[in-house]
Amino acid sequence: MTILGFRVLGPLEVAVDGQVVPLGGPKPRLLLAALLLQPNVVVSTELLIEVLWPSSAPRSAAANIRTYVHSLRKRLADRDPGLGERIGSRASGYILKATPEEIDHIRFGDLAARAQDALGHGQAESALDLLDQAEALWRGEVLEGLPHDHGWGATVARLTELRLAVQEQRLRARIELGRTSEAVAELRGLVTEHPLREELWQQLIVALRADGRTTDAIEAYETAEKVLAEELGTEPGPRLRELRASLVVAPDTMALAVTRPMAPVCQLPLDLPDFTGREEVVGELVGLLRDRREQGKPTIAVFSGAPGVGKSSVAIRVAHAVREDFPDGQLHVDLAGTSTSPRPPMTVLAELLRALGVPDAGLPRDLPERAALLRSRLASTRMCVVLDDAGSAAQVRPHLPGAGACAVLITSRMRMPDLAGATPVDVDLLPEAEAAKLLEGIVGTDRVAAEPECATAILRHCGHLPLAIRVAGAKLTHRPGWTLRVLADRLRDERRRLDELRVGDLAVRASVTLSYDLLPMSAASAFRGLGGLGSVQFPSWVVAALLGRTHADDVLDVLVDAHLVDLVGSDGTGEPRYRLHDLLRCYAAELRAQDVPAKARDATKRVLEGYLALAVEAADRMPIHFFGLYRDDTVAQPALPPGAERLIEDPAAWFSAERHTCVAAVSLAADLGLDALAWRLAAALAPYFDQRGHQDDWLHTHAVALAAARRSGELRGEAIIQRNLGQVQLYQDSYAEALVAFEQSQLLFDKIGEARGAAIALAGLGTVLRIKGEDTVALEHCHAALDQFTAAGDPHGEAVARIAIGAVWLARRRFAEAEHWFTEALEQSATIGDRHREAHALKRLAMLRQHQGNLAGAREWVDQAIAIFNELGDDHCVGYANQNLGELYLHSGDLAHAQLLLVNSLSVHRRNGDRRSEAEVSQLLGELHEALSQPERSRTYSERALALWRELSARPQESALASRLQESAEASYGDSASA
Fold it and tell me: Are 505 and 470 in contact (CB under 8 A)?
């Protein structure tokens, strides 16, 4: 049976059998959110339009909503065919059908009501269980990440208030059950978050009093009194004042505090005077240690992190901060876990016991007895023990207390999930501001202020790693004649960077070596291989490919636990992403250079082949039929990595997650001499680049790919890459370059006898020639392309050619002929199910209607085109269609809608580098602001358009606009003269 869950208590999610369903863009998500806040109730189309377009809705709003509903149904039905029917259509709107158990905010309310009933019957234990279940449903703020419609305010406020009430009830139940320490810990956070809520202060004071912490309860009252006075100008209410009157500190308790003896031993190293940042980590740990001490329980915390990240410094800072809380002493031992000779527990136990006053003669001879004696001595004391540089949980366990209120702070380069009861503390890199402050503290504020850009470069080259920053700072301090630029320039070269980051006995390379030397062979091999991939993020299958294995999650876990590989989060497909810190990558690359070259190259080749296989398969699954060639079917495709079906279930999401890594992979393949891989991977990326308008990546990868194809002598590869280059150059109005690329592509395809490829290149030639005004030759090329597509049996290509032929006739203002070809293309696209081409035909028909003066008909066609482009997720084409629609609104006098559409379209064209379309839209915006009587803004847009037409050598457009600007200027001068 399928388990379905709708979640609004946090980011919007839909889960089917525990797997999150991708919901698409913000509009479908907003629509679903509106339905979920009123489940099993018809939500009117008018209300949905207001939610999706709060400022101004397009005329196609209702049609767009139908498209979004269809998309949501399909995504649900893909998981289970029956789920698509959960979103129903009604005459007046839409309804989402679900049971109370399937919607988290309904289930939350039910659990809260049942808990309230249990509390009323004195069943505190049962109530607490229900309240814990209710609180666990919350993952953040209601519909976090989505813009809230004003109509949702009451519902969101009710849920937020109910959550706070549930939290208060939970705490009340815990106090009734005697779990006061738990209640105090949670109440501390709640009063920080809601400082003006007196009920929370009341509960905190009651919990502290019940826990025997009268002094702390008085402090809490005084804090509440101060907050209320400062923020509201009021004094505490009667209930709070009654609680304060009940708080009396026992005299013997005060005397005990005064006569507490000084600590007999303090072995802590120096708390660094220039210690910088880490306030949150230190504050959390200090709070934890104090809370556990007050509970009479020991605390064990494990500080882990990458080499040089400052684990020991943080642990020492925490230990110094709690010295007064652990008055019986502070011990410190270096376990040397990363050295070649880690200290054995027997030796460490002897050192600790001696520090506690046990003479050598009193030391037990075997390990269990020594560990037992240490536990016995610690049980009756309040001490803080720092175990520095632990190699493993086994090395640590004999030194841990069994009872009492001691604290043990452990630092290690390895995570210790097998150390039961320990609190893990990940010590991360310094944030940018804290890293800058650390460098300033070492070299001086004036020196950094004199060269801020160079200081930023140094921090970037150090990767914000504290050890590296300290080494860089020490170098500069001992070389006062150096400018910061000198060091920044020396650090720029990755091959020399680790050599530069060394001063005295401080060295980044030596620190990393200690961690690397502890790795098992397979993990060490994978680490070296990752160093050869460049500065990229990668998924888990990459490690398996490097090792030539099907799976290598165990190896990756070792690297992550050793803090040599960072888990940076999950991508849009739900796949975890990993990376190497830049300095660790430099170190890994150094080691890789010492491997057998052929073996290292083969490992990287397996990764690149995996990316090629995934990219080709993802391109095959893209919802838009790519007008071009992106795969080489003359050779066998590499095998897909394990789990590929899950990875590319949403192909666009996979491309989005892997875009930067794939772009880097094209260059990497070329650098390694894997030329066939380089051009094939670049070609496989083209469909995604085309749909999403990533034209810079498209140009870069194909420039690399063209050189690779030529080096390898693969004519087919060169023909494919030239065709794709011509396309992106056409988008960017580089017509001369596009013409050469299409011509070269056609010649190469003809040479190898591939008619379909030649036809695609011919169609591109036809488009360039039409734009250049060479209509007759353009028409010949388009008809030749149509004939070749027909002969090759490519109906998609036929539809493209028909649109191209119609576009030439439209340019000639031969409207009947243009309509004939556009209509044929529309019918053919619909027949073969090519929705993308169908939308293009609709857009062209809209342009035809516009030229004929039928603005209403034009709007109808372009609305349909935009709905399809939105459904397919083609933001690139939506931008162009918005331009057409904006122009129609402008000419029909709807200036507000026109301005919104044209401004959005202009941003798309600028992002894509499409100067011709930017010029067209800038000119339209000039006309719009002229109609709005805003002459300065009109001239700004018009002059920008004029400059672009000049850059494009578009003489007719330049001349016409220049004349209009001249006329406008003369008219303006005449008006001012007559005034």
Answer: no
Q: How far apart are CA 755 and CA 550, in angstroms?
A: 40
Q: What is the Cα–Cα distance from 764 to 801, expressed in whole angstroms?
A: 10
CA dist 365 and 716 (Å) reads 78
According to DSSP, residue 345 is labeled: H
Regarding pTM above 0.70, the answer is no
What is residue 255's predicted lDDT score, i.e. its pLDDT? 38
Distance in angstroms between the alpha carbons of the first and the last residue of the chain: 81
pLDDT for the residue numbered 506: 72
Q: Coil, helix or strand for 912?
A: helix
CA distances from 48 to 38, 40, 41, 55, 830 (A): 12, 15, 13, 13, 29
Amino acid 971: pLDDT: 63
Q: Residue 579, Cα to own-chain centre: how many angstroms? A: 14
Task: Give the sign of the dihedral formed by CA 916, CA 918, CA 922, CA 925.
Answer: positive
Q: Is 730:764 a contact under the CB 8 Å cutoff? A: yes
Is 476 exposed, middle or buried (CB count within 10 Å of its CB: 0-12, 13-18, 19+)? buried
SS3 for 708-772 is: HHHHHCCHHHHHHHHHHHHHHHHHCCCHHHHHHHHHHHHHHHHHHCCHHHHHHHHHHHHHHHHHC
Q: Residue 926: CB partners within 8 Å, gap ≥ 6? A: 938, 939, 940, 941, 942, 945
857 near 819, Cβ under 8 Å?
A: no
User: Per DSSP, what are the bridge partners of residue 423?
Assistant: 301
Looking at the chain, how many residues does it have? Answer: 979
* Alpha-carbon span 23 to 5, nearest angstrom: 14
pLDDT in tens, 642-699: 988 888 888 988 998 999 999 999 999 999 999 999 999 999 999 999 888 788 899 9
Rounded to an integer, what distance in angstroms lies between the CA atom of residue 187 and that of residue 178?
15
User: Contacts from 417-423 at CB under 8 Å and sequence distance 24+?
Assistant: 417/561, 418/393, 419/300, 419/302, 419/393, 421/300, 422/300, 422/301, 422/302, 423/288, 423/299, 423/300, 423/301, 423/302
Q: Residue 335 carries which side chain, given as an amino acid letter?
A: L
What letter would DSSP give residue 266? B
CB atoms within 10 A of CB 418: 10
- What's the rounded Cα separation, in Å, for the pair 159 and 689? 43
Judge whether 173 and 129 are in contact, CB under 8 Å. Answer: no
Contacts for 168 with CB less than 8 Å, ≥ 6 apart: 199, 200, 203
Return d(Cα 578, Cα 527) in angstroms, integer.
Answer: 12
* pLDDT means over runs of 10, the chain (979 residues): 87 88 87 92 89 84 89 88 89 90 92 85 84 88 82 80 82 77 76 78 81 80 82 79 71 39 68 84 90 87 89 91 88 84 85 82 79 85 91 89 88 88 89 90 88 91 89 87 90 85 78 85 92 91 94 91 87 87 88 89 95 94 86 89 89 91 95 95 93 87 96 94 93 88 95 93 93 90 92 91 92 91 92 90 89 84 86 78 83 84 83 80 90 88 89 81 78 51
Cβ–Cβ < 8 Å for 762, 736: no
Residues paired with residue 7 on neighbouring β-strands, in sequence order: 13
Rounded-to-integer distance, Cα 302 and Cα 295, Å:
20
Which pLDDT belongs to residue 263?
41
Take residue 756 and report the two structure tokens written for it. Answer: 């379909």
pLDDT at 259: 34
* Nearest by Cα to 183 from 232, 216, 151, 231: 216
**Crossing angle of helices 26-36/61-79, nearest 10°?**
80
Measured at the alpha carbon of residue 764, what is the angle toward residues 762 and 768, in degrees to the nearest 5?
115
* Model pLDDT, residue 723: 95
